[in-house]
User: Fold this.
Amino acid sequence: MIEERRLDERLVELTPRSPALGRTIPVALLTPRGWDRRRPDDDWPTLYPLAGGDGDHTIWTGVFRV
Assistant:
């Protein structure tokens, strides 16, 4: 089961279990406008920015938020 916590209109924090790490990990999901009206067959463009160095899952949504 994935925990989901809505932080604001477009930002959702997910906490899935990672079998590779053996624990849960937080993931920030910045949703496009209209996400709340999505249908199961909708396709959405996806970008996977990864934190490097000393960053965590909030680095891209905290610094580069639009």
